[in-house]
Amino acid sequence: MSATPVIEARGLVKVYALGATQVPALRGVDLTVRRGEFVAVMGASGSGKSTLMNILGCLDVPTEGMYELDGESVNGLDRDALADIRNRKIGFVFQGFNLLPRTSAVENVELPLLYDRSRRRRATRELALEALARVGLAERAHHLPNELSGGQQQRVAIARALVTRPALLLADEPTGNLDSRTSLEVMALFQELNQQGLTIVLVTHEHDIARYAHRVVGMRDGRVIRDAPLPERRDAAADLQSPQLALEP
Amino acid sequence: MRALVLVKVAWQSIRRNTLRTLLTVLGIIIGVGAVIVMVAVGLGARERIHQQIQNLGTNMIVLTAGAATQGGVSQGAQTFNRLTVADAEALRREGTLLAAVSPVIVAPGNVIGGVGNWRTHTQGVATDYQTIRDWAVSSGAFFDVNDVRTARKVAVLGATVAKVLFPDQDPVGQEIQIRNVPFRVLGVLAEKGQTAGGSDQDDVVLAPYTTVQTRLAGRHFIPQILAATASPSDIPAAMEEIRAIMREQHRLASWEEDDFTVRNQEDLAQAAERTTEVMTVLLAAIASISLVVGGIGIMNIMLVSVTERTREIGIRLAVGAHARDVMVQFLVESTVLALVGGAVGVAAGFVGARVLARITGWETVVSPPTVVLALAFSAAVGIFFGFYPARKAANLNPIEALRYE
Fold first, then answer.
1. Hey, is the C-beta of B317 within 8 angstroms of any chain A C-beta?
2. Nearest CA in chain B to A91
3. What average pLDDT does the segment B329-337 reach?
């Protein structure tokens, strides 16, 4: 593994213009995430964590500051170049799953490969089935999203994020729409993928969820107020076996 | 993205909303159907005119007085109507490629005989006329060369005249009076029907041109001289030959324009077709307005579709679609939509043309080029009217699109 950090951000500032008023969402954020880390970004709504997430995910560009993703500078790239970076380097998992309706699981997973300009699109279907197998949904490949449970849908979304073998998996409130047991299942999957070497940045406002990360970055009012490794990290797979959870429906 | 994938995605989204799709493309269906029917009617009319022109005779060349107007200024009154029997005789003598030549001397006037009195045209022609017009007699016989040479007072009746004057008896051998001159009826011509212009070709009496010239007093004129070649391939050369002989006959200097016009059947057909062509284009233009209206319908539904699928667009952009990918996707979708409408419209056009033909008795011809053109046009409508919604989709901000509820 090279020493290049996956995320290297310095002095990120983002100002939104709401009419005449300038609304600062980020007021100078520094963040470094090394390869193989599992980082939870926490904060209340309005803390700037969504803005940070959008910039880290190359969906938006900072007003000021420097951002390098996997050793590549993102500053000054145009729309399409950002799209290519997202395609090659980032896998997204959203709160609302964001699967294409009336489109089978495997076709949803294939989606990023359809827009892949670098790879010579070999065996798209195979790669998609492989990714589905990694999240344990190989036998549901041809189900439509509305035939799958919430947890299964989120696992399809994770498979879609994995299929391009990205440098970074960005998860925005991935458990927000799930019950606690399914949330644990998803977190267990994240931990497993992380152990296999995947770098994960997770945005959440739930402490219970953040406990499964290596490190927690706390945000308030557009600034990082806390950035520390978690002393005692919980194991989601083990928690799934615990008796009080087993009692829940 | 691969073209096939795009078409598949487009097809999926179209199939999701079958009823909506059908209503959306109804405009295109009606438009394409109407264009196809209109053009089919036009082509049918053209086909019929063509047949009628062919029906005039075989390998026929028509010489008329006066220059064709396309030559610029018309030639003026003194040069008008200058065809003479001498011209026809010169062509007969000197034309090497002309298998048959006949002047047509028209002498309008009443014909009396049998049970009635009928106002018609008596045409003085040579025996070659029968060859040129490919016109058989249904009873009796045509007059022969001797009749022409000796200017005998004999006549052949057109089917209409025969029917009017001799409804219950065979006119052959009967006597008729043309402008008070008695003629003996030698035969009756087979029926030819109407010309492209709608006049009755059978309303005619044919007599030797020599007889008409010498025995019938009063007004007559020579509107045309007819000629025919032995084979169709001789026609262009024969037309040149006629021009040369006629210029000689009329003693035209080299700088003078022709004071006559030589045309073949093809030329006549084209002149007649020009009228129907204008009508066809006009009808098709009116019909294509509904194609444009259909296009607006497509634009409308594509705008709705873009709004409905904002989230999908957001997902696609987030996982790496370029603006162009999204744009092409929606353009393909609107084009496929329009093409589906076009295809159904073509089918409707086929049926419509058949039904119209059955009801009105008109001939209708659905030609492959029309079908291809109609499909191409509907695809163009799809692209044109799909452009704005597609661009709107492509320019969406991925963050806002993902958050869209």
1. yes
2. B319
3. 90
| Residue-level pLDDT at A246 | 46
Confidence band of A227 (pLDDT split at 50, 70, 90): very high
Q: Using an 8 Å CB-CB cutoff, list chain B residues near A94.
A: 402
What one-letter code names the amino acid at B188?
Answer: V
Report the candidate in A71, A4, A64 with the shortest Cα–Cα distance to residue A30.
A64
CA distance B38 to chain A (A): 41
**Cα A226 from Cα A107, distance rounded (Å):** 40
Distance of residue B315 Cα from the nearest chain A Cα, in angstroms: 7
B71 confidence band (pLDDT: 50, 70, 90): very low
Structure-block tokens of residue A175? 């458990």
Q: State whether A86 and B319 contact (CB < 8 Å).
A: yes
**Residues A35, A1: contact at Cβ < 8 Å?**
yes
- Reference B222, options B105, B383, B333; nearest CA is B105
Query: What is the arithmetic mean of pLDDT over A119-138?
Result: 85
Which of the two residues, B405 and B121, has the higher pLDDT score? B121
Name the residue with higher pLDDT: A61 or B290. Answer: A61
In chain A, which residues touch B (CB < 8 A)?
54, 57, 59-60, 79-80, 83-84, 86-88, 92, 94, 98-103, 111-112, 114-116, 121, 160
Residue count (chain B): 405
How confident is the prediction for chain B on average, in pLDDT? 85
Check if the beta carbon of residue A230 is closer than 8 Å to that of residue A53.
no
Instruction: Please say whether the beta carbons of B226 and B60 come within 8 A.
Output: yes
B323 to chain A, closest Cα gap in Å: 7
**Three-point CA angle B209, B107, B213, nearest 5°:** 35
Q: Tell me whether B332 touches chain A (CB under 8 Å).
A: no
Chain A CA closest to residue B9: A103
Q: Which residue has the tokens 């449970």?
A: A149
Q: For the ranges B1-15, B76-90, B246-260, B355-369, which has the lowest average pLDDT? A: B76-90
* Cβ contact B317–A83 (<8 Å): yes
Taking an 8 Å cut-off on Cβ atoms, the answer to whether A94 and B402 are in contact is yes
Task: Select from B267, B249, B271, B266 the least CA-distant residue to B258.
Answer: B249
Q: Quote the ipTM score.
A: 0.92
Question: Which amino acid makes up residue B74?
Answer: S
> Which residue is closest to B400 within chain A, CA to CA?
A59
How far apart CA A123 and CA A163 sit, in angstroms, is 12
For chain B, state the CA radius of gyration: 32
Sign of CA dihedral B337, B339, B343, B349: positive
CB B319 to CB A111 under 8 A?
yes
Distance CA B405, CA B403 (A): 6
- Tell me the mean pLDDT in the region A117-129: 78
Q: Which of B1, B12, B319, B326 to mutate to test the interface with A (most CBs of A within 10 A)?
A: B319
Lowest-pLDDT choice from B62-76, B108-122, B296-310: B62-76
Which residues have a Cβ under 8 Å from the Cβ of B274 and sit 6 or more positions away? none
pLDDT at residue B240 above 50?
A: yes
Query: Are residues B320 and A84, on separate chains, in Cβ contact within 8 Å?
Result: yes
Contact A103 B12 (CB under 8 A): yes
* pTM given for the model: 0.71
**In whole angstroms, what separates CA A209 from the centre of its chain?**
14
Contacts of A57 in chain B (CB under 8 A): 318
DSSP result, A10-25:
EEEEEEEEETTEEEEE
Average pLDDT over residues B50-61: 76
